[in-house]
Amino acid sequence: MADVxxxxxxxxxxxxxLREATSAAFDAAGLAPNIVVEGAEMDAVLRFVERGLGVAIxxxxxxxxxxxxxxxxxxxxxxxxxxxxxxxxxxxxTRAASAMETTILSTARVLAEEDAGLAAHVRLVE
Length: 126
Hints:
The protein is mainly α. It contains five helices and two strands. The chain has helices at residues 2-5, 17-28, 42-50, 95-114, 116-119; strands at residues 8-12, 34-39. It has a two-stranded parallel ribbon with strand order 1-2. The chain is elongated. The termini are far apart.
């Protein structure tokens, strides 16, 4: 975390779950990140990083279609999150909802296959 804290940071706004998890990790390590800009949502943060404004701590799966970005796995502390897709039992999912589910599951599988360390943390429930 000390190495990351020294870099210019692109963080999410306060209240965003990933911002809160990242801030808690910096606080637990007794570190203050070098914040250069805040983004309101994932796409904004990634665009700021693509333009070279700084680095961001994001889930690996958001980088799948971002060839201009590279990643390094954050080993300590280990940050995790759950991605769920909930549907009503009495309503058939729309094509969009089905496509989203397919995308989430296939992306998780690809990431797990590419990174053995990540595979240990990916749990698919279908």
